[in-house]
Amino acid sequence: MSKYTDQILYAVEMRGTVTVLDLANTLGVSDQTIRRVSQPLVDSGDIKKVHGALVSSRTASDPPFMARMKLNRDAKVAIAKKATEIIKDGDSLAIDAGSTSGFVALALRARKDLNVVTNSAFVASTLAGIAGNRVTMAGNQLRDFDGAAFDRNAFEVIERSKVDYVVLSASIVNPHRGFLVHEQCEVDIANAMFNSADRSIMAVDHSKFNPEDKSPALCQPPLRPDDIVITDRQPPVQFAAFLSGLDLKIA
Amino acid sequence: MSKYTDQILYAVEMRGTVTVLDLANTLGVSDQTIRRVSQPLVDSGDIKKVHGALVSSRTASDPPFMARMKLNRDAKVAIAKKATEIIKDGDSLAIDAGSTSGFVALALRARKDLNVVTNSAFVASTLAGIAGNRVTMAGNQLRDFDGAAFDRNAFEVIERSKVDYVVLSASIVNPHRGFLVHEQCEVDIANAMFNSADRSIMAVDHSKFNPEDKSPALCQPPLRPDDIVITDRQPPVQFAAFLSGLDLKIA
DNA sequence: AACCAAATCAACAAAAATCAACAATTCAGA
DNA sequence: TCTGAATTGTTGATTTTTGTTGATTTGGTT
């Protein structure tokens, strides 16, 4: 039993399977430590081990929300880690329902005493597990494919909140139109969160920076000066003007 | 017993695990003091100690959510599987926030087009991922250790629902008093769900059938004739009278 | 079969946590 | 004010854990 045991068990149960390197990254320790600490868990049959990863010894047929989170996983993990360097214990924050935000929520399990309001059931259940956190789920009716709520209750709850940070995500970044998503309801929630927050953190991986992309999309609220943009690679030069004045962090 | 004992106990119970240095920091004393003061607590078994941290050793009646998910896992998996034989695609159901219910939710990922209302963020995010499901999260304010909601919104949402089945769980089964849980708010939610449902499914593993257990507890709503009880072993003979008239299924 | 990259393992050095002993501090009661 | 018990911080020795390095194994590919 080590101080990492609980977190390893949680990650394995939650995701069905986690690579050793992934765990090492999120817990901020070396891969060797993960191997050492997980050895007793494997011996006692709590979890199983395959080459490269730890897997839940439960019936191996339930990769929940995380399955969809495979895309650009490394980039998102890095971005999420960066976000935890900004957010401190005890901070209050709103988190949207994007997949990158899901990784931020997982990484934020390393923080404590957080005040969280989110419209994503995944984010809510991820962070509610940490004793000391106060988590508020905004909304009742969940969208089927990602468990996010966009009903009236969601807006009411968000609008009566006041938070230090809002963590937002985007599907596309366009040098002229800004951060874009596909659904109006997502923009509306983002706006409500944005207005409740002192400062915004926009988390987008490099694949979203596509100057050519002309697909129809809707604009997220324009960021304020000194709002934070976290990404995993230096964005193309076309975005220089658009990003000037923002606090760009490369994970 | 020192002036810090309460604070240490509180911190450990709240957070599940706290590093010694962390505690020293927040209490404004040296690490050595924390070790000295926590030593008697460790000796008396109130908390446990690992290298670098103190961890909660809460007894089986009230462990953190994820720990409970490990307890009697095989039994719960079997029970959950049985539940999926009763519940068909397209059914509507309410699910409470017990740990056995968490397994039922995982097993129900094999069903589709379900209408689900639950006050557990874990259950909600588990089932929201399935295309075709309509999932409603009842409640906004989540309890920290298991992500369950018991606020007014939870009751409002449940009370305006109408479902085929309610999946309930219990902490103890007593031959005279019935199915018991520890918190009044859990009973209240169970009652609300019970009243919204045509038929109840009570999911309890064999370890809960303890005729001796006298620990204080509150009664779940009394089941109606032909309501279903799923468990993993034939209950002791003392329960025969209590279970008569119910539809007992052994997984 | 041979090859490569990634993962694992073993072993040692570095870092962190623990423990024991002692000095400094607090504070109640004479 | 003084005394002595109890508590706390500090120091250095000891133990445990962790990171790193390099050799070895594994899984997959040509």
Label the structural class of chain A. Answer: alpha/beta
| Residues in helix, % of chain A | 25-40%
**Low-pLDDT residue spans of chain A:** 59-66
Percent strand of chain A equals 15-25%
Question: Which sequence of SSEs, written as H and E, runs from N to C of chain A?
Answer: HEHHEEHEHEHEEHEEEHEEEHE
Mean pLDDT level of chain A: 85
Gross geometry of chain A: globular
Largest interface, by Cβ-Cβ below 8 angstroms: which chains and how many residues each? A-B, 45 and 52 residues
Rounded radius of gyration of chain A (Å)? 18 Å
Number of strands of chain A: 14
N-to-C CA distance of chain A: 32 Å
Specify the number of helices of chain A. 9
For the biggest β-sheet of chain A, the strand order reads 6-5-4-8-11-13-14
Sheet with the most strands of chain A? Answer: 7 strands, parallel
- Oligomerization status of the protein chains: homodimer
